[in-house]
Every structure is written in structure tokens, then in C-alpha cells.
Amino acid sequence: MHQRRGTFRDETVDYAAVGATRAHDLMAYPPEHSIPAEDAWRIGSGQARFDTAADLLMSWAALRGAGLRVADVRPASGPMYTGVAFDDQGNAVAPSSMEHEQRFAADGTPYVGAGTTLQVHGRVSGLNADAELRVIFVDEEPRRVAFALGTVGGSVVSGEESFLLEWRDNDEVWFVVRAFDRPTALAYRMLKSLVRRRRRMLFQGYLRAISPLYATPEA
User: Fold this and answer.
1) Neighbours of 148 (CB within 10 A)
2) Which residues face 89 on adjacent strands?
3) Which of 31, 94, 109, 132 lies in disulfide reach of 152, CB 3.0 to 4.6 Å?
4) DSSP letter at 3?
5) How far apart, in whole angstroms, are the C-alpha atoms of residue 199 and residue 195?
6) Are 132 and 121 a contacting pair, CB within 8 Å?
7) Segments of the chain assigned E as strands
8) Please, are residues 20 and 26 in contact by the beta-carbon 8 Å criterion?
9) For the chain, how are helix, strand and coil distributed in percent, rounded to 5?
10) By the 8 A CB rule, do 74 and 116 touch?
11) Is the CA virtual torsion 202, 195, 178, 150 positive or negative?
12) Tens-binned pLDDT, residue by residue, of the chain (219 aa)
């Protein structure tokens, strides 16, 4: 897998804290008025497991696994801002090249790419989950794959979620999802427990898609 990093600089998302799902202290200090969430699961071990899960993740399988229909996937038309990458100690490193061939799933849908916009349609916990989303960043490295989605509009919440797959030094493969949601729909503003339930259901769907043998409990 080629090393590739990309961050899309654009002002069309409907929240200010773009990229905040990268913050180590997200759970303690989430963006104002938002509800943070994160979970991590060991989904196997070895390169074959990592490669299979990475391909699923980058072809939108997590969203589909949560019962959402992915539509109108549009890759960014302009150049992507590569940004500044950081190593594990927080030191800045040179961004890698963004030149790559566009990949497509079997049904012709473009793979995840920085700046890509998409529509999702469906219901979560019986409530509308339609939204327009934008891919905020993409990281693809030999042992790590990650990307984040930010809301553009039309969603019952405003915010961001990130997906990370890691093939760790001990050979374990981990799937990590982080998010923050600011309620926008009246029902969610009135009942914050609905936001947490929605997020829990989404996380379970993502896990089922990336690790089909993993049995998640019923909500």
C-alpha cells in the first residue's frame, strides 16, 4: 500500500472544528456544544486481515454496514492540500506525494479520497440519517489507514467522524472510530440521549461491516 496523505481545505462544512477528531483529548475537550464518542476494537491480526479491512473501509463499507445508502460520490475536482504530517512524537514531517490513481469499487463508486463529497440516505434508530458529507482528510500508510467525514448540510447533527485501521507492531489489527456531534434537529437538541443512541448504533454498524465475524449486541 502506497503512503498517501491528504487534507482538503474548504469552507463548505457546517462546523468550525475541522479535523478535531485527530485531537488526543477529544473526549475530555470536545468542540463547543458537541457530544464526543470513540471506540476501538481488535478485529484480528496480520497483514491479510489489515489489507482486507482497509479495502472495505476505503470503499465505503462502514457506512453501508450501518444501513446507509451511499450516493452521488464526487471526487474533488481541484488540487488537494497535503498539509503537514506529524510523527508519534509530534514532530513535523514532510507530506508525502498526493499523486495517485483514482480507485473504484466493483460497482464503479470512487474510493474514499480527500475532498470527496457524497450523499448518504437512511435511518438510524428509526430517525432520519440523510446528510451531505465531505472527506476532510485521508491517510494511507503501510500499517495505517484513516479518513474523516465532516457534515456539509442536511443532517440531524453537525460534526465529524473519523475511521482508523492500524496494524500494530504486535501484529494485532485495530479499528478505531471517533466522532463529535452537535445536535441540529429539534428532537436531538431536546433529548441528548438520542444523539448518543444514534452514535452507538452507527458504531455497531461500522464494526459489523469491517469485521463481519464480530457479533455486536442489539441496542
Assistant:
1) 26
2) none
3) 132
4) -
5) 6
6) no
7) 4-7, 35-45, 69-74, 85-86, 92-93, 117-121, 123-124, 127-128, 131-141, 144-153, 157-167, 172-183
8) yes
9) 20, 35, 45
10) yes
11) positive
12) 555 555 444 448 888 899 999 999 999 999 999 999 999 999 999 999 999 999 999 999 999 999 999 999 998 875 444 444 444 444 444 444 444 567 777 777 888 998 899 999 999 877 788 999 999 999 999 999 999 999 998 788 899 999 999 999 999 999 999 999 998 888 778 888 888 998 999 999 999 999 866 654 444
Which pLDDT value is given to residue 188? 76
Q: What is the pLDDT of residue 160?
A: 96
Cell output for 215: 457479533
Tell me which DSSP letter residue 214 carries. P
> What amino acid is encoded at 39 in this protein?
D
H/E run at residue 197: helix 192-210
With residue 206 as reference, give the H or E element that holds it.
Answer: helix 192-210
Nearest residue to 176 via CA among 131, 127, 139, 218? 139
CA distance 132 to 12: 11
Classify residue 20 by its DSSP letter: G
Q: Amino acid letter at 34? A: S
Q: How many Cβ atoms are within 10 Å of 25's Cβ, its own excluded?
A: 9
pTM for the model stands at: 0.81
At 98, the amino acid letter reads M
- Residue 129 identity (one-letter amino acid): A
CA distance to 73, 83, 95, 209, per residue, from 204 (Å): 23, 32, 33, 9
Question: How far is the C-alpha of 47 from the C-alpha of 49, rounded, in Å?
Answer: 5
